[in-house]
Each structure stands twice: as structure tokens, then as C-alpha cells.
Amino acid sequence: MARQMTGAKMVVQALKDQGVDTIFGYPGGAVLPIYDEIFQQNDIHHILVRHEQAAVHMAEGYARSTGKPGVVLVTSGPGATNAVTGLTDALMDSIPLVVFTGQVPTFMVGTDGFQEADTVGITRPCTKHNWLVKDTDKLSETIHQAFHVATSGRPGPVLIDMPKDVQFATGTYTAPKAARTDNYQPQVKGDLEAITQLVELIEQAERPIFYTGGGVINSGPAASQLLRELVDATGFPITSTLMGLGAYPASGKSWLGMLGMHGLYEANLAMHGCDLMINLGARFDDRITGRIPDFSPRSTKVHVDIDASSINKIIPVELPILGDIGHVLEDVLKVWKARGRKVNKAGLEKWWKKIDEWKKVNCLAYTNSEKTIKPQYALQRLEALTKGMDRYITTEVGQHQMWAAQFLGFEDPNRWMTSGGLGTMGYGFPASIGVQIAHPDALVINVAGEASWLMNMQEMGTATQFRTPVKQFILNNERLGMVRQWQELLHGERYSQSWSESLPDFVKLAESFGWKGIQVSDPADLDDAIMEMINYDGPVLFDCLVEKHENCFPMIPSGKPHNEMLLAADADAFKEGATLV
Amino acid sequence: MAALKIKKGSSSHSAYDLRDSHSQIESSHTLAVIVDNEAGVLARVIGLFSGRGYNIDSLTVAEVDHKGHKSRITVVTRGTESVIDQIKAQLGRIVPVHEVKDLTVEGSPVERELALIKVSGTGDKRIEALRLAEIFRANVVDSTLESFVFEITGTPEKIDAFADLMRPLGLAEVARTGVAALSRGV
């Protein structure tokens, strides 16, 4: 039986029918009818943020850590424009989000009304798809379609713009099952002939490598499981992008660590020297490839991706496979097993010997100090003291993010939330709140730099209000560390605007919001301080005063190939003005 | 480890790989894009071209299936083979896009464009314009004592040629529809 209800009620009903229990939002004039409905029910928990950008990042953290879409509700005009950074971030990192925005009434659209913005126009390039709903009868079906689009194929953010009169008016509610979704059905099964060719390559390769990305995580836990099975059964080495960490466990025997600009020496050299590269759900980002003409020059490249536009976009590949990673891996395993589980054992043995040599370079080595806390050391201690805990890590953007990726080990997918593609400073803190909302009993730590963290510090109030015991692990070097590093190495040590001036007293700041503040500067006190942070039942602002001039290595300078990495030892010579030959 | 050859403080290094764009052969492709005729769909297609830096040489759009609310967008674009492939893949990613056909790859398509061309003048020039119009099978759709409006249909090249001939004879204004195209055969 068709049910009649107001547009505002439809929003709440559709969310319930989609299984949504949590939304992140901020009220305003153009969404008041929906907030009125939210007030009159208890099924959907609304998290009141302090800024709309943070609402989107929270939803991203929620989505990334659960595999479910994140839902956001904000008002028209500034509410919508504030959400744009988060939408772009989610689009770049393929995070499923459904964002609802209010809009001025339909008869006012186009008149420059109060808090009017062309939301669908502004967000068209930063959403996977968006809708302006002008008819209440179409609202509920559009919402169901939005969830379908956000979560199928390559996931991404979608937005529904709802004029206020559409929310007030009464219309017919469409249930999820009755909603038309057949016009968007991306292909998930890979071509079996291509998969058989991949298996042939696997059987013959002398120097193979798996290069995995966020697509494995997005495909779901089953894909990570299948990946582990395939990697362990073949004995092939595996590296991952920043977005893919956790799909294969860091403790796994085939794990080479992250690749790319600040990736591990052995991972990058293996990518450069391989004869078979199997890209699973990664997109040959410029932070990965370095100089394109010199990228892995002697390898046969296979690219499995659900998005046809990612294939052959940057790096032409010999064998493209369009499909969902989980489905493709299942078929690869089936065919490979049926053909007798063959690999080139002799070749592999030699290849691992070579990789073990590269590992001996110990590329993450740094000079520790007894007087000041080195950021790498702080992360090593954090890793050691939280190992085995039910732990989720988010990060901001910069040096600390790369160190976190290098020094923290991820054993499972959905445990690592970071802004990869867009590189959004200010992402980590709200994301950590979103993660904590989804996993109330877990240990959620945001590894941050002080400059990034300040970008969304207003969310301290949100954390207090909703009792999220998030731990803000700030590696405070009083610098915009990554900017400073580039200025040191590539801009003649002219440190233009890269100091964090006028920093707050983080301990007092914490206390003013009812948090716990901890400051530590002596390496000898670090372990106790970290344990105090972990054991405190509530949000903690951990101000870790670290070495101010530490650089993040290894580093592939832009425009250089993988085999021209800069290690910490080379950097000293580099700094002294030597031209490295 | 291989050598690093960048100098300290070198300004030639940015956060991005500033490589020369490879000079490869570009060719023109006519694409037919079948879309749901919904609000903003043309903006999505055009936004994709401008946002990703692709060329549009010609673009036409109209609803071709009123019952199914389907529109056909015909885009003439230029690029290297890899850029054309990327354009097609990116178009295919837009949610209301149903089909992307590369008519150029399918075989030399039938392409037609319609133009209205106003020529003003008197005396010999006027007579010459009329004579050339006959040769090009252009119709006179409006006439005053000092002007003609010709309607001409053909390939873009034919229309270019006609407009060029009209220039010394008093070409005043040109309106063109852009290319409509279909593949040959079934």
C-alpha cells in the first residue's frame, strides 16, 4: 500500500529503510522540517558537528571503518559549500557517502535567496552523482537510488539537494525494493579469458609483485581474505598504496611495506625491477609512479579495476581486467588451483634473495636521540604499546601521515583512515570521531601534526558532547613539517610561512573542553605518557613535542624514477650542498 | 642506489613531475553519447571536458526518444588515441550516460550540419552569391533587396567552404547547428 507522508518524514523513513542508524549534520533554515522529524524519533542517532566540513570527514571515517555508507545532513548555502572539501576528499578516495542538503523553496531557486547556492552546480564535479529533487513524489525513490549509486561500482559521495517546500509537501513513499536501480549496474565479474591469461603470467613470472590499493578494501572483507590466500599460496611479494594498507597484514611474510614517494626502498625497487606487476584496485597515482617513462620499465602490467577510466589512464597496461577485486580474485584462485597451483619456483627464489638484499638497506633507519623525541620513535612506541589492541588509526596530512604509514602495522582492512588522494589537512580529527561513533569500545587514535590538527579543532566540542574517547596523538614540531622539508631540500632552506606560530597550550585547551591533556617532551617519559593516554576513559589531547627539523625518508623526489630514492644518509650529503652523483 | 642528479635548491623541481607533454598524433573523433534527458546532464558532459582539459570542436544535443527520455549528445573531439580512450571511459562513468559510441572507430560516419548564412550586398556580388548557393545546393530562406539568408546542409567542411566563398561577397552572419552523426550500415 502506498504510504503518504511529508518529504521531511520520507527522508527519515528512507534512512531507516536503508539501515542507517547514525547521521552527521548541522541544522539550518532550509532543513528545519527534517530536523523536526529527527526530533520526533529515536531510530536515527544524529551527531551534531561544529562545522559541516567535519561532518563529511566524520561520515568518511564512519564509512571507511565499517564498509557502510556515511550519511550527512546539512543546510543550504554555506552548509553545502562547507561540505565541498569533504565531498572532494571522498570522491578522490572512493568513499561511499550520501549527503543531504537543504535548498531554498523551488519558487525561490535562481533568485539569489537567503542562503541560496547552486549546490548541484557546485558539487557536480566533486560528487559521483547528485540530484535536485523538485517533486516530493520522487524524493524517496531518489534517496534509494542515491544509496545504490554511492555503494555500487567504484564507491563515492552522492548528494541530494532538497528545496524546503519539497520537504513540507506530502507525497507517496516508495520503498527501497520498488526503487528503480537497474539503470546503474557496473560490471563486477572479470572477463574469464583475461583472468586465465593472468594465471598464465602468474605461473611463469620470475620477478612478480602484487601492487594493491584502496579498491581491495572497498571491495569488502572477502576481497582482503582472497588476496591473503592468493599471496600466501603463490609466495609473491606484495606492496600497497597508502589507501590499501591492511588488506594484506603487515606481519605477513610477503609484505614489503608501502610503496611510493615515501614508501619503502624494497617496495619501490621491487616495483622498478619486477617482470610482472599485478595492480589490484590501485590507480597509478603520481605519488606512486614517479617519472612515468621510467616507471617499472621491464614489466608486464596487469590492472584489475572496477572503474574503466582508471585503466590505461596514466600507465598503459598489457592486460586490463574490468571488475570487482573480490570477484576477480575468486576466479583467479579458482583457475590457478585448477591448473595445478604452478609458480616459477627458481625465479621466485632468486627474486626474494634480491628483495632481501634491498631490505638490508634498512631504509627507515633514523638517528634516535636521548634528549628529544624523534617522531619516528614516538610512532614506534605507539605501535609497540597498542599492538594487538582493537585499534583504529586516522591521520591528518603531512610528515606524520607518512611516518604513520611507515611505522604502524595494519593487520586488517578498515583500520586505517587517511586522506590519500586529496591530502586534506584537518581530515583526521573529525574522521577519528566518526570511527569512534561506529566502534564505541575500540581504541581510536588520530596521528596528527599540530598544524593539520588545528584546521578542525572546533570538533573538540563534538567529541565531548558525544563522549567519544578519541586520542589525538599530535607530533608537535611547531612546523608545517612536510612544507618545511620541501623548502629545506628544494627551495634553498627559505622557510616561507611554514612555522606554526602562536600555538595554544594544548593541555589547557584540552581541559577547557573537559578532555585530558598530556604533554611529553622527554623520550624517557614517552611510554608512560602513551599508556596514560590509552588508559584514560575519555578524549585525550596528546601533545608530543618532537624534533623540529626531522625529515621524512625515504623520499623519491618528484620527477625521479623509483630507483633514485633519497635515503636519510644521502640527505645529509644533500643538505651540505653536495651534488649527489 | 642510483645517482640523484638534482641540485640543492633547484627550482626546476616542483611537487609534480613537470614533464613535457608528448607530441603525439592527434585525430578527430565523433562520439555519440546516449543519456537520460534529466536536469544537468549536459552540464555533466561539458564539465567533464572542461574539468579534464579535453577539446570540444562541436557539440549538439536533443532528445531523440521522447517516451524513454533519452537524449543523444554528438561531440566532435580531438586527441591522441589514449586521450580519446580516456574521454570515452570518463563519459561512461557518468551515471545517466547509457552508451558511448565512437562513430569514427566504427567506420567513417555520416555527418551533417545545418547552417544559416546571411549575405548582404547588391549588384554583381549579390548575383554571384546566388549562383554559388545553387552550386552548393543552398536554399534561400529569406530575402530582402540587400540580403539573403541561405540554408545549407552538409559536412562541416562543405559549410566552411561555402562560408569562405561568401566572405568577399558580403558575409554578414553565420549560425551553425553543430554536427549530427550516425554510423553507416546496420
Automatic annotation (TrEMBL), chain A:
<dbReference type="InterPro" id="IPR012846">
    <property type="entry name" value="Acetolactate_synth_lsu"/>
</dbReference>
<comment type="similarity">
    <text>Belongs to the TPP enzyme family.</text>
</comment>
<comment type="pathway">
    <text>Amino-acid biosynthesis; L-isoleucine biosynthesis; L-isoleucine from 2-oxobutanoate: step 1/4.</text>
</comment>
<dbReference type="GO" id="GO:0003984">
    <property type="term" value="F:acetolactate synthase activity"/>
</dbReference>
<keyword id="KW-0100">Branched-chain amino acid biosynthesis</keyword>
<dbReference type="InterPro" id="IPR029061">
    <property type="entry name" value="THDP-binding"/>
</dbReference>
<dbReference type="GO" id="GO:0009097">
    <property type="term" value="P:isoleucine biosynthetic process"/>
</dbReference>
<dbReference type="InterPro" id="IPR029035">
    <property type="entry name" value="DHS-like_NAD/FAD-binding_dom"/>
</dbReference>
<dbReference type="GO" id="GO:0030976">
    <property type="term" value="F:thiamine pyrophosphate binding"/>
</dbReference>
<dbReference type="InterPro" id="IPR045229">
    <property type="entry name" value="TPP_enz"/>
</dbReference>
<keyword id="KW-0479">Metal-binding</keyword>
<keyword id="KW-0786">Thiamine pyrophosphate</keyword>
<dbReference type="InterPro" id="IPR012000">
    <property type="entry name" value="Thiamin_PyroP_enz_cen_dom"/>
</dbReference>
<feature type="domain" description="Thiamine pyrophosphate enzyme central">
    <location>
        <begin position="195"/>
        <end position="331"/>
    </location>
</feature>
<dbReference type="GO" id="GO:0009099">
    <property type="term" value="P:L-valine biosynthetic process"/>
</dbReference>
<comment type="pathway">
    <text>Amino-acid biosynthesis; L-valine biosynthesis; L-valine from pyruvate: step 1/4.</text>
</comment>
<feature type="domain" description="Thiamine pyrophosphate enzyme TPP-binding">
    <location>
        <begin position="397"/>
        <end position="544"/>
    </location>
</feature>
<dbReference type="GO" id="GO:0005948">
    <property type="term" value="C:acetolactate synthase complex"/>
</dbReference>
<dbReference type="GO" id="GO:0050660">
    <property type="term" value="F:flavin adenine dinucleotide binding"/>
</dbReference>
<dbReference type="Pfam" id="PF02775">
    <property type="entry name" value="TPP_enzyme_C"/>
</dbReference>
<keyword id="KW-0028">Amino-acid biosynthesis</keyword>
<dbReference type="InterPro" id="IPR011766">
    <property type="entry name" value="TPP_enzyme_TPP-bd"/>
</dbReference>
UniProtKB/TrEMBL annotation, chain B:
<dbReference type="GO" id="GO:0005829">
    <property type="term" value="C:cytosol"/>
</dbReference>
<dbReference type="InterPro" id="IPR045865">
    <property type="entry name" value="ACT-like_dom_sf"/>
</dbReference>
<dbReference type="InterPro" id="IPR027271">
    <property type="entry name" value="Acetolactate_synth/TF_NikR_C"/>
</dbReference>
<dbReference type="InterPro" id="IPR039557">
    <property type="entry name" value="AHAS_ACT"/>
</dbReference>
<comment type="pathway">
    <text>Amino-acid biosynthesis; L-valine biosynthesis; L-valine from pyruvate: step 1/4.</text>
</comment>
<keyword id="KW-0028">Amino-acid biosynthesis</keyword>
<dbReference type="Pfam" id="PF10369">
    <property type="entry name" value="ALS_ss_C"/>
</dbReference>
<keyword id="KW-0100">Branched-chain amino acid biosynthesis</keyword>
<protein>
    <recommendedName>
        <fullName>Acetolactate synthase small subunit</fullName>
        <ecNumber>2.2.1.6</ecNumber>
    </recommendedName>
</protein>
<keyword id="KW-0808">Transferase</keyword>
<dbReference type="InterPro" id="IPR054480">
    <property type="entry name" value="AHAS_small-like_ACT"/>
</dbReference>
<dbReference type="GO" id="GO:0009099">
    <property type="term" value="P:L-valine biosynthetic process"/>
</dbReference>
<comment type="function">
    <text>Catalyzes the conversion of 2 pyruvate molecules into acetolactate in the first common step of the biosynthetic pathway of the branched-amino acids such as leucine, isoleucine, and valine.</text>
</comment>
<comment type="subunit">
    <text>Dimer of large and small chains.</text>
</comment>
<dbReference type="InterPro" id="IPR019455">
    <property type="entry name" value="Acetolactate_synth_ssu_C"/>
</dbReference>
<dbReference type="Pfam" id="PF22629">
    <property type="entry name" value="ACT_AHAS_ss"/>
</dbReference>
<dbReference type="GO" id="GO:0003984">
    <property type="term" value="F:acetolactate synthase activity"/>
</dbReference>
<comment type="pathway">
    <text>Amino-acid biosynthesis; L-isoleucine biosynthesis; L-isoleucine from 2-oxobutanoate: step 1/4.</text>
</comment>
<comment type="similarity">
    <text>Belongs to the acetolactate synthase small subunit family.</text>
</comment>
<dbReference type="GO" id="GO:1990610">
    <property type="term" value="F:acetolactate synthase regulator activity"/>
</dbReference>
<feature type="domain" description="ACT">
    <location>
        <begin position="30"/>
        <end position="105"/>
    </location>
</feature>
<dbReference type="GO" id="GO:0009097">
    <property type="term" value="P:isoleucine biosynthetic process"/>
</dbReference>
